[in-house]
Amino acid sequence: MTVAARQSRAQILELDLQKHLQSAGFKNLPLYLSCDFREASLTVVGEHPRSLVLKAQQTFAVLEAAILELQPESIQQIGLCLKNTGQKQPYAFHSFTMNHPVLSRKRTVEVRKKTEEIPAEATESAIALNPPDTTNIPDAATDLPLETDATDPGVEETFPDVWETPNNAEPIAFQVSSIPTDHAQNPFDPLDLEPVTVTKKTKHSPFVSLAVVVISSMAIVVLGGVYHLLSRPCVIGECTPLADAQQLSDDSATTLKTSKVDNTPEAAQEQLKQAIALLEPIPFWSIHHSKAQDDIDRYRRQNQNLNFAVDAARLAVSAAETTENPPHSAQNWQEAQSLWQSAIAKLKEIPQNSTAYPFAQQKLKEYRTKLASGNRQLTTEMKAEKKLRSAKNTAQVAEARAIVAQKPESWDKVEANLQKSLDTLSEIPTNTESYQQAKVLVPKYESKLSQARDRKTLEGTAEKAYTQAVTIAAQARIFEERNAWFEASQHWRRALSYAEKVPSTTDYYLKTKSLMPSYRTYLHEAEVKLEEERNMQKARTDLDKTCKGNPKICDFTVSKDLIAVQMTPDYVQKLQQTFIQAENTNATKTRQAVEKHVQTLQKALEAIGDNAKIPMQVYDSEGKRIATQTPN
After folding, report:
1. How far is the CA of 321 from the CAs of 324, 340, 381, in angstroms?
2. Is residue 192 a part of any domain in this protein?
3. Which residues pair with residue 174 across a beta bridge?
4. 414 and 488 together in one domain
């Protein structure tokens, strides 16, 4: 805990204890409390003028009860003492712990020796300042730890001092319930108490007594004022709040540099606010006041700059939330872009001489990247929306033509429009909101396209249907020669479709019927080839990912009959070196990691072979076959 924090904590406890004393009947008494925290202990010193005599037991009881009620944090041992103003040593003391209050145990502790003995009733009395006449004073202190005697209103009262006794006898004793018999357990040594020599009080006239009261009160007020002025932070001694505030400012700058969380500016700003709060209590009469005010102004400027960073961070969060879980409409992306631009504008307000400037520059780079990415997504979404509108318009034109279409040429235009609409929809990126609408329209347009084709076939001539089937079949054979099995399968499918649409009542029906079985066979073969090609391509892709590394793990070749995988020499050498080193150093985790890596590689290769449905052979770096995998 810093010195400033201890001082602030002590001042708060002093005020709380004074309130408890006042509520217990200590109002208007010149009893001043001072608190001091040391690790897990607390010392409370009660100081009062010699003209005021307190009952030690009752005073300690009130203080102990107050401390037990307040429960100061991290405090176990408490020491209490009472002393006269101007004396170095206390005349009474008391100690207890938070878990074991002791005022319920009565003990008599010998405090000092005098030549006079205080009678029992004197030890339980507390003496107030001598008034000129107590006849008209109301009995408002019945609960106070003070005693007065106003039984004789016609006689001026004098009160014996705490040390006065009617005769010269044994040493004075106080009944203090909290004093342990073992002096080593007390925070004060009763042998060090200074003896107090108090002379017999003589009677004074009422005016003299009144003057003494007034002067004493004024002295108390002045001393209290001086004490208050001197007890303020940074008035006497070292001004630790300045250093603590500077440390908080440095911590704020460090937070901006090192923290990666979203609320970094807010955390740094909170540290600056704490620094300002440390310096604000420094009074104007302190020699450190000017420096404190300069630092406060500097910290407030830094805080203002952090406000820009905080606002920018909040705008960035809003922008990110706006585009969370895409896809989104172009309007949403535009709103997000506006938020990113506002966040960037906030960061630009931070000057170069601010501690937040490096943080702002870092976030500027990040936000500009987000803005650029958002702009690309916005452009993509706008293009997608444009394509969606175009596809809808083209489909509407096709529907209008279908209403009046009669000749094959008219149905051909209907078909072309619907096909164009579907092609346009297929160009819409899958990561856009328009794609979701396109998915609903595609089945609808495909159905209409099929109907248009049927009508065109029915309205067309059988010769044209036959010609189309033959022509498309020829194109399919060309694609087969190029090993373009995807295109070949599509063309065989279309050729078969045209052949099936030839009306059975035409002359071309028999010719078409003889071609249809071969078209189906060719289509099946093309699809089988296409499946093989896809499997081989997927195997190549998976092997390429699996064999990548530094060093490269393996080389491979893929054919429809065999997948050959060979480990690279660099990879094998590194694997062996790592394993040998792990064995030599007994690095169990490293050895287990190597074994796990090899097992993972083996499983990956087996999965690739099974998925491709192609046998696989694995070779070491020297070309020796080390494994063979037959697909399940």
Report:
1. 5, 12, 18
2. yes
3. 109
4. yes
Q: Are residues 500 and 583 in the same domain?
A: no
Per-residue pLDDT tens for 260-308?
A: 655 677 677 777 778 788 777 777 777 667 777 777 877 777 777 778 8
**Within this chain, do residues 302 and 400 fall inside the same structural domain, yes or no?**
no
With beta carbons less than 8 A apart as the criterion, state whether 556 and 564 touch.
Answer: yes
Bridge partners (DSSP) listed for residue 554: 567
| Single pTM value for the model | 0.33
Q: How many CB atoms lie within 10 A of CB 623?
A: 8
**Cα→Cα distances 129→12, 206, 213, 528, 542, Å:** 29, 13, 7, 116, 100
**What's residue 515's pLDDT?**
92
Task: Report whether 60 contacts 94 (CB < 8 A).
Answer: yes
Among the candidates 209, 231, 253, a domain finishes at 231
**Angle value at C-alpha 297, between 293 and 298, nearest 5 degrees:** 115
Same domain, 307 and 428: no
Q: Which of 231, 252, 270 is the last residue of a domain?
A: 231
- pLDDT given at position 161: 35
Residues 76-124 pLDDT 10s: 889 999 989 888 788 898 888 888 676 544 333 333 333 333 333 333 3
Q: Does residue 492 register a pLDDT over 90? A: yes
List beta partners, residue 84: 48
Residues 442, 468 within the same domain = yes
Separation in Å, CA 327 to CA 366, 370, 563:
22, 16, 40
Taking CA atoms, 168 is separated from 77, 163, 458, in Å, by 38, 11, 142
Place of tokens 């489909």: 395
Q: Is 289 inside a domain boundary?
A: yes
Give the model confidence (pLDDT) of 538-585 as tens digits: 888 999 998 988 889 999 998 888 889 999 999 888 988 888 888 888
* 370 is a domain residue: yes
pLDDT tens per residue across span 197-232: 334 444 445 565 566 666 766 666 665 555 445 445
Which of 91, 103, 65 lies closest to 179 in space, CA to CA?
103
Contact 78, 41 (CB under 8 A): yes
Find where tokens 């400037």 sit: 357
pLDDT of residue 134: 34
- Burial (CB count within 10 angstroms: exposed 0-12, middle 13-18, buried 19+), residue 338: middle
Same domain, 22 and 138: yes
Cα angle 191-193-194, degrees, rounded to a multiple of 5: 125
Average pLDDT, rounded, for the chain: 75
Is 368 inside a domain boundary? yes
Close Cβ partners of 32 (under 8 Å, ≥ 6 residues apart): 46, 47, 48, 224, 227
Do 473 and 400 belong to one domain? yes
Domain that holds residue 390: 384-532
9 shares a domain with 34 = yes
How many domains is the chain partitioned into structurally? 4
